[in-house]
Write a structure and sequence with these properties.
- The protein folds into two domains: 192 residues, 3-Layer(aba) Sandwich (Rossmann fold); 173 residues, Rossmann fold (3-Layer(aba) Sandwich), CATH 3.40.50.2000.
- Helix content is 43%, strand content 17%.
- It contains 16 helices and 13 strands.
- About 2% of the residues have low confidence.
Length: 379
């Protein structure tokens, strides 16, 4: 079977890591896979393309202008027809929209769409429009997958009568990505006498890092605890977040080392993993923290409650509430028994549900069902 994974990537974030993990596993068990990478001509070689090539995966690049691009969709259509592709797997709104533009479904090659999560928080924004287009075009797919039950129940899908199957994201059971020495040096100033917090993610508004900085400010000034926070990642909000840390008087308590390759290997250097997101699908960084057996404090949004089994595997707080976040961090830090209990449960839950092997098995069943249905339809 030749599986063509189509994505428009803006960096190496959650969806990108899911795609690469899935492709790598599919290759290991004997399937042929190709990464179809969409982008603009000015993008150069994207991070996902470099990473895919580094681990030995085939890559096909498609450069085109932004927006619903019929000519770009046609180029992708010709590629999959000429390269014996059996199924197209779309990741993200750009891939799904381009797929939906094809009136004859890539010359009878079936395609599925995985909905990794929608991030818009305001109506009528550009991203809000794209997310509705994503849902509309997903309706034309042969099959739709959601990465969480919360995503499956999204009002857009209900309005369009789309009923996806849920397949949780999965990652490798063992992290084997190396860490650059210069990146590791960013952590050497951590003080073991203080609360050591870590958060990993794209520095964008939906991740709620401004709320996390406020919570650190409250822990320091209202709770009178020594606290330090490492926020790993890059993104459009970085400068604003650094200014906010300065305004709160916590610049010495917070570090922004940027993107760190293999940052999950550093998790056990810290006391608590914190996720302050306003919206989420099924976040990979949370799964990495569960794999590491980390004490976790996270907002109860998207697929997070499912991952943490309703609070059995981590402390959940309401989104946008810095008081609740600060209180939960301090109370968990002071409760060694609770930390040990939820960390143990989180690690067990990860191994039972969120490995790449379990994810691949479920996608394989979807592929076979779709291919069989397609063959019956046209034979």
């Amino acid at each position: 079977m030749h599986i063509f994974h189509l994505i428009d990537s803006g960096g190496l974030y959650g969806a990108e890591n899911v795609v690469l993990n899935l492709m790598n596993r599919q290759t290991e068990i004997g399937f042929t896979t190709t990464l179809g990478s969409i982008g603009k001509a000015a993008d150069g070689k994207k991070a996902i393309e470099k990473k895919a090539e580094e681990i030995g995966l085939a890559v096909a690049c498609f450069r085109m202008r932004n927006g619903p691009n019929v000519f770009g969709a046609h180029r992708i259509s010709k590629y999959v027809q000429n390269n014996n592709v059996d199924i197209i797997h779309c990741h993200g709104y750009k891939a799904t929209i381009l797929s939906g533009l094809q009136p004859f479904r890539y010359g009878r090659i079936p395609y599925i769409s995985t909905l990794h999560g929608w991030t818009s928080t305001k109506k009528y924004t550009k991203m809000w429009v794209y997310e509705w287009l994503d849902a509309l075009m997903a309706k034309r797919a042969d099959h739709v997958v959601a990465v969480s039950e919360a995503m499956r129940e999204n009002f857009r899908l209900k309005a369009l009568n789309i009923n996806p199957v849920v397949i949780y994201n999965g990652i490798q059971n063992n992290e084997n990505t190396s860490i650059k020495g210069t990146d590791y040096l960013a952590l050497t100033g951590m003080d073991n006498t203080k609360i050591k917090l870590v958060s990993i993610g794209r520095l964008s508004k939906e991740k709620g890092f401004n709320i996390l900085l406020n919570a650190v400010h409250l822990i320091k000034t209202k709770r009178n605890y020594g606290v330090q926070l490492l926020i790993v990642g890059e993104g459009p909000e970085k400068n604003q977040l650094m200014r906010l840390a300065k305004d709160y008087g916590i610049s010495d308590n917070v570090k922004f080392p940027g993107y760190i390759d293999g940052a999950s290997k550093l998790l056990k250097e810290f006391d608590i993993f914190v996720m302050s997101s306003l919206t989420e699908g099924m976040p990979i960084t949370l799964l990495e923290a569960m794999r590491a057996g980390m004490p976790i404090v996270a907002t109860a949004v998207g697929g997070i409650p499912e991952a943490l089994e309703g609070g059995e595997c981590g402390i959940m707080v309401s989104s946008g509430n810095e008081l609740d976040l600060a209180k939960s961090i301090v109370e968990l830090y002071d409760n060694s028994k609770l930390k040990d209990e939820i960390s143990r449960k989180a690690k067990i839950r990860f191994q039972e549900i969120f490995t790449v092997e379990k994810m691949e098995e479920k996608y394989r069943k979807v592929y076979m069902d779709v291919i069989n249905q397609n063959n019956n339809k046209y034979n």
